[in-house]
Amino acid sequence: MLTLIATAAPEDGGTEISPILAPYPGLMFWTVVAFFISLWVLKKFAFGPIQEALDRRRAAVNGAIEHAEQVRADAERLLVEYKAQLAEARSEADGMRDRARQDADAHVQRVRVEAEGQRQEQLAQTQNQIRAEVEKAMGDLRSAVAEMTVEASEKVLRGSIDAQQHQRLIEQAVEELDFDRLQVGAR
Question: How does DSSP classify residue 9?
Fold first, then answer.
């Protein structure tokens, strides 16, 4: 285009205007008419559908943003509910642990009381058995002493005893005495 302008310039250095740059009122009129017709056609057939497409896109984006905000709000609400449920579950677990500990302590105490009762009962039975054995041994000892007294009395009554015979009778009675039976009874 510059070449065309340059070639259109007069060679003698005058001020003649290039035909491309020269104003032609008819051409200007039809250019303006063509411009407004093109503008009307674009407005009628292009700008409307383009604007509708942009409006639909804007509505879709706004809808997506609102949906995302709603989902975020729901997620936050669910998180709060989850935290509350978790706190409640922890509280229940703590309560269950405390109840189990109390039950275990009560069971241990019950077992101790029962064991102490059994121990006392066994001790009482053992003491009763010991008393019975002691009484039996004492009865046996009384019987043995009574028998020895009777035997000694018979011997005394049969004849008079001097000091030497008396000593011999005592030694004989002691030898005949069952010390094992007396020791068992003393326990």
Answer: S
**pTM (two decimals):** 0.38
Which residue stretches of the chain are H helix? 2-8, 25-41, 48-158, 163-176, 179-186
Please, are residues 169 and 153 in contact by the beta-carbon 8 Å criterion?
no
Tokens, residue 94: 């703590």
From the centroid of its chain, how far is CA 144?
Answer: 75
| CA distances for 122 relative to 118, 129, 149, 187, angstroms | 6, 10, 39, 17
What's the pLDDT tens digit per position in 108-144?
999 999 999 999 999 999 999 999 988 888 888 877 7
- Token couple for 28: 């200007």
Q: What is the DSSP letter of 177?
A: S
Identity (one letter) of the amino acid at 136? K
pLDDT, tens digit, 9 for 90 and up, residues 141-163: 877 777 777 777 776 666 666 77
Which pair of structure tokens corresponds to residue 86? 């978790």
Could you tell me the two tokens for 11?
A: 């060679």
Residues 125, 133: contact at Cβ < 8 Å? no
Q: CA 74, CA 66: separation in Å to the nearest integer?
A: 12
Q: How far apart are the first and last CA of the chain?
A: 143
